[in-house]
Amino acid sequence: MNQYEVLDIRSERFGGLEVLFPGWQPGDERLCVYSPHDDDAILGAGYAMRAALDAGAEVDIIIVCSGDCGYSTPEEKDTIVARRHRETVNVYRAFGIPEANIHFLNYPDFSALSYVGRNISPTREGHFREVITLLRQRRITRILAPNHYHEHIDHLAASMMAQFDAPQAGDAHSVDWADPYPVRSTAQYSVWAELDPEDALVAGRDPRLRADTVLIASESVEQKVAQGLHEYESQQAIIADLMEQRKARQLPDGRFIEVYRRFDPRPKLDFEPYKALLAKLM
Fold first, then answer.
1. What is the span of the domain harbouring residue 239?
2. Backbone angles phi, psi at 48, to 5 degrees
3. What pLDDT sits at residue 238?
């Protein structure tokens, strides 16, 4: 049995990472996961990160928020950011991602929306220069964006960043930051909430199937993810429900699933349907 298998829901066919990441090029892939908070990437995209690593790709994580609201007792308030930073480095390093590939933007929790963009005010920069430079310098080929629908205001912000940064990384502007480098594909992962119903599949298919890709991983992969999540000792009270919900991922054969929605961050307008309608009516 394969350690990883990917289902394309539209065609109902199984394959490898090339299903989630079309045109996958072994030996020349670098995945970047936008993580609203430090534990979100492993919670929602742990299997994909592990599959990419096992396929020989590099994995980077952009952690948008500092975690300063992630304390469960008043005594932790002044130390929680430093503690979560240490936990994050340890968790992802054990997972196979070196500290140099973990990038902290350190925006305040519940405030990331105010940092989306280039210049937020005449004296304050937003996320854009730092992240576009990073994507170009790291030569990122694939991006995973968090779910923007009914999860968390910081998840919405991180999703907006990922969706609009992806095409901009390859555009020929601001070239003094770093040489443009095109991102090959983008997909959306869920940390815990349903995906946007407007992104659901075509009529006639079960409307509950809002994703278009299912990544199936072996039980050993889930154990690696679960071990990493347990290492977030400061967050155990906060993510207890999410840990319990992971049981729902298990298939009858013992494997576990993650779901994704592939998307084009810059879809071109198709004039042909309008022209066809006009040809019919004129």
1. 4-281
2. -65, -40
3. 86
